[in-house]
Amino acid sequence: MLEPQESELTRQSHVLRALGSPFVADVLAAGARQLHHAPATAGMLADWPDDPSSAAVAMRFNAALHALARRDTPPVLGSLYRGDHGDVDQALREALAGHDEFIAGWMRDPPQTNEVGRAAAIMAALLAVRRRFPLPVELLELGSSAGLNLNMAHYAYDLGGVTAGKLDSAVRIVPEWRGAAPPAGPVDVLAARGADLQPLDPRDLETCERLMAYVFVDQPARAARLSQALALARRHPPAIAREDAATWLAGELAEPAADGRVRVVFHSMVMQYVGSADRRRLAESIAAAGAMADRKRPLAWIGFEWNAARTRVELRLTCWPTGDARLLAICHPYGAWVHWLAEDNEGSSRTA
Question: Whose CA is closest to 61, among 48, 49, 72?
Fold first, then answer.
């Protein structure tokens, strides 16, 4: 019988196969079978201090192997990832036996995907905000990583036929769109800044390699888009504070809001890594700022996160001064598709 943490690799293998990544699914399944060749990694997984699913341990494991494959270390793993052979178990056995400490070391750090595909859903939510409040926006991002989504105004979007952003951008995001299109209109971003405990520098080659390793090897379009977004971030460096999200946001929202703009707090696939105490602090800071908002200085909160049962990713929007909250869409975890639920241009949504 598999150990519980080994079963997590197997479980995520089934999830990834359903999400359309069969190669990664095969890697995770073989990893579960061959994990006994890597005692340090196996021990780390056996002693994982919290929920391995919430901590995305399977994604950390896969990214460590992808990082090794990108270095052609060992060669049998590199050749597997290039499609030169199909013996997944042999490649995983050699990688785990020969690079156990590297894999365990890699897995100690939280995932860093900074997936720009999620920016499409965030932009759609900004269009809903723009219809509600026809004002320019100021973006405040929690868990910014390398800040690639702080540059969302520099990307081009096709959202169910509604275009947005810079249409001539090299970073073009066109998710599969389900349901009605979001409301059309311009989104004018006046400022964008964020916070992260360990912000990544897109100018650093090692950082770029880490981000690229988290892209599934059987999704080359994602890899190409990430490479283009990193290049753009080197030309337009995002503003990221090295600070925990709760403390940073409390300071940002304590500053009086400017008239004639919408302050927008947003985050994508971050809350699973935030402790319950900090989640409460974040919610309290946002609620306090919302209580001070008015039509000249509105506040919006956009979340792209797993639901509590981790059965689906939800795009949610709360707006002040009214404080009304809406489910705008159900989304693919990496933004590959968006099922828009809004029934009208104000962003109201049907129950899903």
Answer: 48
First to last CA, the chain: 38
d(CA 242, CA 205) in angstroms, rounded, equals 20
For residues 289 and 281, the answer to whether their CB atoms sit within 8 Å is: no
Q: Distance between CA atoms of 195 and 197, rounded to whole angstroms? A: 7
Q: Are 295 and 133 in contact (CB under 8 A)?
A: yes
Contact 249, 140 (CB under 8 A): yes
280-294 pLDDT, tens digit each: 999 999 999 999 999
Q: Structure pTM?
A: 0.86
Using DSSP's 3-state secondary structure scheme, residue 277 falls into helix
Q: Where are the beta strands (DSSP E) in the chain?
A: 137-142, 156-159, 162-165, 172-173, 176-178, 189-196, 239-242, 262-268, 299-306, 313-320, 324-331, 337-340
- Distance, in Å, from the CA atom of 203 to the CA atom of 224, rounded to the nearest integer, reads 17
Do 131 and 348 touch, CB atoms closer than 8 A? no
